[in-house]
Design goal:
mainly beta, Immunoglobulin-like, 6-stranded mixed sheet, 17 strands, TAT_signal, signal, DUF4352 domain-containing protein
């Protein structure tokens, strides 16, 4: 597939983005790559290539690279393990500092050779950090283009994937009716889906008493999938040094 070159002009930031077609249904089965579920990418959304810029509303995102490397670089991972890392250039378009981990929502689905590696039932998701002067940080400051790395641990003996397909979500600015305060929210589709039994068979409580799925709490019986505003397809390279 021929990569789409970076766009010369920045698109207008949407306030409201209409929902697109529902994601293609996943085909169950254990994959030979990264242990995900076999799934074909949606064919109804805008297709982009490596280096293309896309305005997601809350952030301006460029998918720059995908690489498999040993851990330790930029203080991420350990040297005895391999990691699949997605390299992004992200500009926080809000008026306040946000967490780099919010890119987990901005890229809701990642496929390696047509196999879904994110999200995965029972998995806490990738480790995401912003990079500056060779060090990793947790924050993205407003208006500053920043390198962000989304890192997946590659299981021992698993082959290196050849290509990635990445879904890009979209965000809209809402104003609270009572407080008149505005905040960015992810846009979701209108049709709910039911998670697999494995995804909902997590403990229903936590010591902190919070209701966060990243703490291993039970997911609701149904959920609204995020809108996919665009998809990026790019090759995976292997870093040897």
């Amino acid at each position: 597939m021929t990569s789409t070159p970076p766009r010369g002009a920045r698109r207008r930031r949407p306030v409201l983005i209409p929902a697109v077609a529902v994601l293609a249904a996943a085909t169950a089965g254990v994959s030979a790559a990264l242990g995900g579920l076999a799934q074909a990418p949606d064919t109804s959304v805008e297709k982009l290539g490596k280096g293309a810029e896309f305005d997601q509303g809350k952030m301006l995102t460029v998918v720059q690279d995908a690489v498999v490397r040993s851990g330790g670089k930029f203080e991420m991972g350990v040297s005895s393990k391999r990691y699949l890392q997605i390299i992004l250039k992200v500009t926080n378009e809000t008026d306040r500092t946000i967490q780099a981990q919010e890119m987990d929502h901005a890229l809701p689905t990642v496929r390696a050779d047509s196999t879904t590696i994110k999200p995965k039932p029972g998995d806490l998701g990738p480790y995401i950090r912003s990079i500056s002067q060779g060090h990793s940080y947790a924050q993205l400051h407003p208006g500053v283009p920043t390198t962000v790395i989304m890192s997946f641990e590659l299981e021992p003996g698993r082959p290196v994937p050849k290509r990635l397909s990445i879904d890009l979500g979209a965000f809209e600015l809402h104003e609270d009716f009572y407080s008149r305060q505005r905040a960015w929210s992810q846009i979701f589709q209108d049709t709910a889906v039911t998670p697999s039994p494995a995804a909902s068979a997590t403990p229903a409580s936590s010591p902190s008493g919070t209701d966060s799925p990243r703490l291993g709490l039970a997911e609701p019986k149904t959920r609204l999938p995020p809108v996919v505003a665009a998809q990026v397809d790019l090759p995976v390279r292997v870093e040897t040094s």
